[in-house]
Amino acid sequence: MPTRNTSPMVRPGASGRAVEGGDKRERARHGAARRRGRSERFAPYVLIAPAVLIIVALRLYPLVLGVNFSFTGDGEANGTAVGFANYLELLDDPLFQTALANVGLLVLLLPVAVAIPGLLATFIYLKVPGHRFFRSVYFFPAVLSPVIVGAIFNLMLAFDGPLNEFLGAVGLGPVDWLGDPGVAKFAVVGVQIWATFGMALVVFLAGFATLDSSLLDAARVDGASLRQSIWHVIIPSLSQTIQFVFVTTMIGMLTSMFGLLYVMTSGGPEGSTYLPEYYIWIQQGQMNRPALASAASTVLFLIMLVVGLLQISVLRRAGRED
Amino acid sequence: MRRLAKWVVAVPMAILALATIYPIIFTANVAMKTRREYVLDRFSLTESLHWDNVAAAWNSVGMARYFANSLFVVAASVFLLLLLGSMAGFALSRLPFRGSKALFIGCLAALFIPFQVIMVPLSRVMADTGLIDTYPGLILAYVAQFLPFTVFLMTSYYRSVPKEIVDAARIDGNTVYGVYRRIMVPIGRPALLSVGILDALFCWNDVLIALLMMPSADHRTLMVGVTSLRGQYTDNVPTFAAGVLIAAVPVLLVYLFLQRQIADGVTAGSTKG
Lengths: 322, 273
Hints:
The structure holds two protein chains of two kinds.
Chain A: H1 6-19, H2 24-39, H3 43-69, H4 85-92, H5 94-125, H6 131-139, H7 146-156, H8 162-169, H9 181-209, H10 213-221, H11 226-237, H12 239-255, H13 258-264, H14 276-286, H15 290-321
Chain B: H1 3-31, H2 35-40, H3 52-60, H4 63-94, H5 100-111, H6 115-128, H7 135-159, H8 163-171, H9 176-187, H10 189-205, H11 208-213, H12 222-232, H13 237-272
């Protein structure tokens, strides 16, 4: 961060030089700057143009184009308007239904995915022995690619892999983590949480850095238990951070699990681990149904909008009541 | 918390830490074993560091090629992201101009468009312009994907730079471009480092964009290469693990040396947003 005292250091020297009119060269330079200033009126636009062009051409335009696509046909009907046919087909497709149901599951599991890093960040903030080490270790999986995480857990969760070996040692039967339709989706979500809780943890710790520690001290002097402190001091003070973590974790679950699904389950077994993003990929890349995929994209976008807005309004209301 | 209570909490936290690193250590250990060792006992510590697996993964399935592809694409993407992001961030934060606010809001909105939502039409656009399956195409896709984030963070960083510095440099006879080059780029170094590392991680770790934009085999990036390893080495787990290790080591190194900058970048949005 630039320090505040840089400005008084620079300002007197620079403006002083410009005002001292005696030096011809200085005056000439000043005049030149002014003339250039006029011709540089467009400089801000020149500086920002490449970024704007790229964002408009490769993000905003495709968004509009995609919504448009979703109302046209695939294959022989390519390019012709078909109304809501793609959307109706989506709702009829059991794979897409599973994908939506799994989104519901993710929303239900969201509080867990936020509470775990929140609690761990609280303990790290309270300087549990080894807190620096814990912080470094917990954060590491968050920088690994989902592909690498997925590959590692393919080994860990294999039927004859370490996890089942461990369970066998404590007398529990082997579980077909990635082969049982009822289990696989929980296994994948579990891996996703393993891979990303460090990210939320670091965000929580940044929130704690802004927390007024005298509040916590006061609570402790008043004899508050840890649970009371968390409930009455930490959660209200960090409501903004919590809100941010909720929204980013949800976005992460809806848009960054492709790598895991691709490597760990390919949507299976029996399509039980489909998510909208995987469905879009399959329809576009394997089934050659870009219009149908676009309809799924639009649904995903709407889900994200709704979930994001809902969360913000719910959390805001909760924050006000406190 | 009392001191005793802290120690009590530290025990499950240590177990969790172990659970966090064990999968990585397990994979590294397997990568160093011979196939025979692995089949006999996959949990024992490897008897010797068996680098042949790493060499096999590196040479036989084109991991070397994929590694070079990734390195090139990531370097070019990050360079462009930082250049365009800091230019736009400077204009949006320190140069008053008409429409500046609307552009900033538009940029924020673009931040919330996930790639999955635009991937179908984007691949159509790339195909129409002949950019699909080319390096410039993939680089452009990455720049488009992470530019809103980069612009957002550079703008909020440059807002903390005192206006007087810019004014003084202008009065000193610098053009706007001169101010950018001589003042904003050097002053923005900490933010450029943080954002650059994050952008590099995003690009390096991505698999979906690369799969979509680079269909042909010799254009694969490293992460796409890792996904193809799985099919080729189902019966040779140590070599598979070695391939995974090759892909993970650069990230591990970056993490060991630049952990603070990564955390700074991740949290920059949370406190200002």
